[in-house]
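Page 37, continued from 36.
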């Protein structure tokens, strides 16, 4: 049974602690802090390139003492720790699960939380994913946007508060996780073994205030197959939409597969290539449109495209055809229509479902689903329905990981404090939002996600004069997609928001405001 993590709000004096306008002192602070950051722009870019250059994909199968997520994550944690110490900050390793960096002498802390691990590079890049570069105000490379650009902004915030002698009654603690992309065991370990700040801002999401997150259900299903689909392998991560899927069909003439290709929807046909193998069989290669599992609107799952071809190949073994139908039906839409899970609510919107990985196992394949479900839904009920679906194929549930939804009401005083800060610093009129993306806020007490990304709102990007997607990256560029990039100007505008937000949050908490999350 999953329950939404909801903060119950009762009237309290903290409402009076929410500023309604930006003061002259705060305006001067923004100008001063931004001038400091502009003076350090080249240094910031150099640091970000160094951090992105490390292919820090978390992999527990490569665990070693002090490196629970493998050597690449250990390498980036070491790099960041050395940089923080060079800058004069205290660092605190947490058994390789996380790293924290602290500044200030207040007894209580405000946290800034991000992560240093990345999803695998995947396919479709027009640039090398771990040879980052800066051009026209953007840094291109895997992890630049999710989440190393923000992680570095956190470190530069500590520098700015120290160098500019901005007074705070709380200390600041950065928490850098090492496995956010693979279920967040990093922050779970941290909470069990390390100090939890009085209130934390998760700097690993879009702006403005994220007041609700869908539940996260990661479930793997066994799909029985025949001899051909038993070799199917596709995808790079559960939470990334697969860009390609391919399969060799021994003994099947290409003419039969070409006929099958002609039967799929017209707009997909050019995404499928059929070639003849040396032994006279056929090889099918399907392309999709990759992206983050939580934001599937402009994506297309290549496994679905391939399966739609395979179900139309009559000479396949009956068990292979049944497996192909199971995949095509389950993945029919990214909203759970084919699996019978489609649902929505007024707080977080529709359920999303991504078939991120297919891998061979004895007797078939395993299909790994990444499901983001509304706060009104129940992960246990969804699991039971998927178990029944799999049983209909002769399959079963292999593994389940369920993170309940997160929800803080929009009229909460802390939400209004942060939302007002965002609007006043940037002179805009935005509202808090809900999303399917999951952050460390699911597991870290007294935390809420607040930026630094602007990309969820193209109109806001244009209003603020921030650059749109550059012409030299893939049209599918973005977090978890090919040619991931971070806008330096966007991150620097976020820095302005955070400077005021931290000053206000410090006063809010010190003067009696209530923690949330």
């Amino acid at each position: 049974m999953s329950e939404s993590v909801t903060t119950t709000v009762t009237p309290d004096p903290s409402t009076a602690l929410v500023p309604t306008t930006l003061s002259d002192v705060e305006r001067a602070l923004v100008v001063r802090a931004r001038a400091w950051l502009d003076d350090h722009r080249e240094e910031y870019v150099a640091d970000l390139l160094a951090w992105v250059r490390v292919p820090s994909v978390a992999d527990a199968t490569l665990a070693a003492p002090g490196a629970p997520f493998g050597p690449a994550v250990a390498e980036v944690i070491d790099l960041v720790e050395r940089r923080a110490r060079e800058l004069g900050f205290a660092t605190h390793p947490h058994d390789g699960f996380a790293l924290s960096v602290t500044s200030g002498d207040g007894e209580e802390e405000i946290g800034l939380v991000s992560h240093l691990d990345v999803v695998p590079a995947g396919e479709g890049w027009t640039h090398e994913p771990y040879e980052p570069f800066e051009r026209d105000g953007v840094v291109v490379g895997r992890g630049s946007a999710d989440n190393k650009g923000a992680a570095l902004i956190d470190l530069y915030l500590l520098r700015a508060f120290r160098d500019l002698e901005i007074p705070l009654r709380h200390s600041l603690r950065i928490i850098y996780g090492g496995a956010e992309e693979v279920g967040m065991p990093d922050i779970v370990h941290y909470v069990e073994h390390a100090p939890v700040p009085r209130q934390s801002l998760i700097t690993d999401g879009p702006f403005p205030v994220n007041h609700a997150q869908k539940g996260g259900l990661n479930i793997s299903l066994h799909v029985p197959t025949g001899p051909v689909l038993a070799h199917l392998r596709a995808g790079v991560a559960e939470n990334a939409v697969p860009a390609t899927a391919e399969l060799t069909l021994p003994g099947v003439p290409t003419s039969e597969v070409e006929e099958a290709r002609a039967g799929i929807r017209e707009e997909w046909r050019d995404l499928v290539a059929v070639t003849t193998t040396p032994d006279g069989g056929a090889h099918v290669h399907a392309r999709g449109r990759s992206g983050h599992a939580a934001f599937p609107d402009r994506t297309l799952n290549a496994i679905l495209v391939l399966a739609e071809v395979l179900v139309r190949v009559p000479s396949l073994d009956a068990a292979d055809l049944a497996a192909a139908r199971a995949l095509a039906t389950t993945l029919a839409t990214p909203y759970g229509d084919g699996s019978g899970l489609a649902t929505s609510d007024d707080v977080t919107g529709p359920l999303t479902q991504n078939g991120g990985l297919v891998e061979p196992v004895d007797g078939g394949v395993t299909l790994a689903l990444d499901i983001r479900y509304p706060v009104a839904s129940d992960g246990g009920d969804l699991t039971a329905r998927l178990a029944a679906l799999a049983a209909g194929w002769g399959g079963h549930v292999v593994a389940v990981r369920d993170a309940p939804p997160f929800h803080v009401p929009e009229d909460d005083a802390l939400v209004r404090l942060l939302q007002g800060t965002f609007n006043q610093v940037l002179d805009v009129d935005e509202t808090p939002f809900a999303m399917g993306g999951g952050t460390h806020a699911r597991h870290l007490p007294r935390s809420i996600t607040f930026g630094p990304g602007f990309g969820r709102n193209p109109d806001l990007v244009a209003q603020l004069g921030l650059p749109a997607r550059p012409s030299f990256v893939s049209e599918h560029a973005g977090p978890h997609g090919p040619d991931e990039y971070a806008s330096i100007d966007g991150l620097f505008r976020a820095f302005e928001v955070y400077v005021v937000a931290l000053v206000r949050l410090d006063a809010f908490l010190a003067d009696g405001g209530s923690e949330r999350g």
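The chain is about 30% helix and 25% strand. Flag for discussion at group meeting. The mean pLDDT is 94.
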